[in-house]
Amino acid sequence: MRAITTFTALGALLPFALALGPASAQSRPDPMRAAATQAARPSLSDPMVALRAPTEQPADGVAASAEFGGLPDAPGAEETYYQCVACHSTEIIKQQRITDARWDDLWGWMVEQQGMVEPEPEIRAAILGYLKTHFSSER
Amino acid sequence: MTDQAANGHRGDDTGPGQSPPWAGRREFLRGTGLSAFGAMLGMAVPFGANMPAGLIPAALAQDTGLDLMTGKNGLIVLGDRPLNAETPAHLLDDDVTPYDRLFIRMNGLVPQSALDASAEGWTLTVDGEVENPLELTIDELKSRFENVTRRLVLECGGNGRAFFNPGASGNQWTTGAVGCPEWTGVRLADVLREAGVRDGAVYTAHYGNDVHLSGDPEKEVISRGVPIEKAMQDDGLIAWAMNGAPIPALHGFPLRLVIPGYPGSVSQKYLTRIRIRDQVHDGAKMTGYSYRLPAYPVAPGTEVPESDMVVMTEMPVKSLITFPQTGADVAAGQATEVRGHAWAGNGDVAAMHVSVDFGQTWQEARLEPPANRFAWQRWRAEVNLPVAGYYEVWARATDMNGVSQPSTTPGWNPRGYGNNMQHRIALIAA
């Protein structure tokens, strides 16, 4: 019964929390906020699902591109696809929901430690912008 | 490896004088990863613009190990290159995890020697800060040192990463990057004693022959190590067999380390060399944010300077509910058996508890002793769900120091390691 209640409360809270946006979420640390908004889609058959970090971008209604390994079909997808699949598949990209700072760090790690070829600055900007837009914990 | 890849690839080439179908992309591809790959092979990569989703060049695809997934049963594939797959909790009910239920964590590509199951000419080098450097064949390992068989838990340091919020980069493991197969080999400590570890020894450095994702044969995939004190404990093995058979290709054929209690990444697969170092090892995935935690507690999402990150060592105490499967229907007002496993990075588990009321009250489960140190321990409890309705079973293990699992994610960290939050399943009583 309790879980049903939680489920309902969560559904009611979600639009409110989303409307507030990430900016106000930064004001004062509050672990209860994460408890209220964490799950994108609670599952009544598996309580662990509700504890996961959101796996969907709420405002991101972009369709997956079949041509580019299922990446969201948006500006930057093509550049991102060809840069990244030289080493790894798009599956690892699609799993990420991280901060902008973490994307910058990952980029540096791939170039410095993993031998990734640094593309032209405008391609780099397009790819990082794309990653920070579609695979972000901040927006 | 690279030659083979190039040869295998040539058959698919568009042929001389033909303009590849993606010629229009050439401008874009200049300087990107794909052109770098082409340059490495000494040829253009015939990438069709209409290439099916997720397809990667045949030269690269053959070594991910993806074909070997047919031998696995019920695993969730998180990524196909590198190949990473985890096991749903209810499929980990066996005391000894069978091959088809063991998670896969690849950092690179499966080496050809493992795919071919060929250990011909394989040697293990032990050098560095030792009196007598060794170069041992597998037969010499088997004959010169005591052979031991042990059940040892192997768990990815990032198991549970999916529950950190904000997200942490890496494979989004939930609960299934763990297993407890039975390993046969020799004690790492016996081999190191034979080599004569010098007083100045600080750390081990492990090397394997797996292949970097870029295909670059010069590039190290992963090379981690442990403090020499950990290496000299009796628990760690240099193993050649898993569950009584040669170690499968995905899990390190023909030789691997199994050093329990630490993140799985120290248990080097495809082991060729152990170098003893006079400093903390700085190989691939030892530095930066890899397998490191902040030196102090940080708020979720904090950017921690690299200099404040410290190497992760012991894994925390943890448990799983492996029966029933989450969402199962059970009878109200009757005893229902709930069971699973518990393990700890610092040795054995002291106690196991379950709750059916969201952690308000806890009942003690029966905890069996481990088959050996660092084997996971079977626990069982009878729960009674008084009236029809929705229940959750929460499971909580406590280690020998009295430290138990938190009900939510413990300390957030940039790469999402060490999440030992309590496992929960749903039960529907009718």
Nutshell version of this structure?
The complex is a heterodimer of chains A (139) and B (430). With 139 residues, chain A is mostly helical.
What attributes does this structure have?
heterodimer; A: 139 residues; Cytochrome Bc1 Complex, Chain D, domain 2; disordered N terminus; B: 430 residues; alpha+beta; Immunoglobulin-like; 5-stranded mixed sheet
Descriptive report:
- The complex is a heterodimer of chains A (139) and B (430).
- Chain A has six helices and no strands.
- Chain A is mainly alpha-helical and 139 residues long.
- The two termini of chain A are 33 Å apart.
- The model of chain A is unreliable at 1-25 (pLDDT under 50).
- Chain B is α+β, with helices and mostly antiparallel strands.
- Chain B has three domains: 2-61, no CATH class; 66-311, Alpha-Beta Complex (Sulfite Oxidase, Chain A, domain 2), CATH 3.90.420.10; 318-429, Immunoglobulin-like, CATH 2.60.40.650.
- Chain B is globular.
- Chains A and B meet through helix 1, helix 3, helix 4 and helix 5 of A and helix 3, strand 1, strand 24 and strand 25 of B.
- Chain A: InterPro entries: Cyt_c-like_dom_sf.
- Chain A: Keywords: Signal.
- Chain A: Residues 1-25 form the signal peptide.
- Chain A: Residues 27-47 are annotated as: Disordered.
